[in-house]
Amino acid sequence: MIHAPGGPAVLFDLDGTLVDSEPLYFEAGRRLLAAHGVPGFTWEEHARFIGIGTRETLETLRREHGLAAPVEELLAEKNRHYLDLAADGTEVFPEMRKLVERLHAAEVPLAVASGSSRAAIDKVLAAGGLDGLFPVRVSAEEVRAGKPEPDVFLEAARRLGVPPERCVVLEDAPPGAEAARRAGMRCVAVPYVHGTVSDPAFASAGLCFPGGQREFDAQRVLDWIAEQLPSAGRGACAEPEDGRTGDG
Hints:
This protein is of the alpha/beta class. The protein is built from nine helices and six strands, in the order E-H-H-H-H-H-E-H-E-H-E-H-E-E-H.
């Protein structure tokens, strides 16, 4: 696929889509809550926030657990925990790396649009060897509202100079898929959490990999982008017969 003026741009969610960073975010959240007198934070509790920005997550946890510390303090503390954990490297999903490298070689405009802090985005991309491939990065910290609002995707498109209707979003979580729909962008869905496969937000995805990262195929995405396929509608996320889904 060779990029030409008027061609697509591709916007990647970061956590759970490009990299398997959710276990690190879970551990950072567990440490944060334990330090503020809330032990026993579980993966199941963490999973309900996958796809939601860090600030919005902490606002909810602060309210639910009656934490006294202000959100800004909690946000800075969680980011410190996460950056310490991410320093040892974060796994980039192999087929995602292949897709990014192929798109970059074809001179397709690329961006990361994430609910993570800008410091976390920069750290993870550098640790994963993707630093030079994403000159455009948008954190939910930089816009009015995080996903499922479309702000991060619209800002990424603005910085790339590409209209929203020519953008393709790769997302692992329902809030991100909904944000892509609200932005007027096509979406490739790669569900990270098994239980979200049938979420209505994924119904608008033009291409869906119900098996998550285990099923994800870079070449299939390249072919789909090149052909500019229309939305596949509700049938796109039908669960495979053997019930498999992605990592996480």
